Amino acid sequence: MPISDQKKTQFHPTQRNKVLASADVCIRQVQLVDKKGAIRSVIVWQCGPDMFYSNTMDGMFDVAQRRKAPEWLVEAIAQLPSDKQFSYDGTPKSTAPASKSYLPDDDGDLPEFAQG
Fold it and tell me: How far is the C-alpha of 57 from the C-alpha of 39, rounded, in Å?
């Protein structure tokens, strides 16, 4: 038996291809005004009461770039009115769901935020 197979079987020898647990996670693009007054977008990751943010999606996976969300950001997201919340395709969540749901065809960024 090759060494790589031995390493695999020593951890879970009888549990292969089995989901052991799952958690609801929310990943959002959030537009905010930073401490210098500039409008910018950040990525926010939330699972239960835990919330982190980063400047980029890649930063979410880098401990050096990911930061715990400050209390003001947690409160601001919780109190965000429904007309300032958008679905993945850019439609406001306050409106009825679109009859046709689609994913963007291109590989570009998320749709622009509507200006309020």
Answer: 18
Q: What is the pTM of this model?
A: 0.63
Instruction: Tell me which residue of 80, 74, 83, 23 sits closest to 44, measured CA to CA.
Output: 74
- Domain assignment present for residue 116? The answer is no
Nearest to 72 by CA among 113, 33, 27, 25: 33
Question: b/e per residue, 96-110, with b = 16+ CB within 10 A?
Answer: eeeeeeeeeeeeeee
Where are any strands of DSSP class E within the chain?
26-33, 39-47, 50-54, 67-68
* Counts for the chain of helices (H) and strands (E), in that order: 3, 4
Cβ pair 87, 100 in contact under 8 A: no
* 9 within some domain: no
pLDDT tens-digit readout, 18-53: 888 898 999 999 999 988 999 999 999 999 889 999
Q: Residue 3's pLDDT is what?
A: 56
What is the number of domains present in the chain?
1
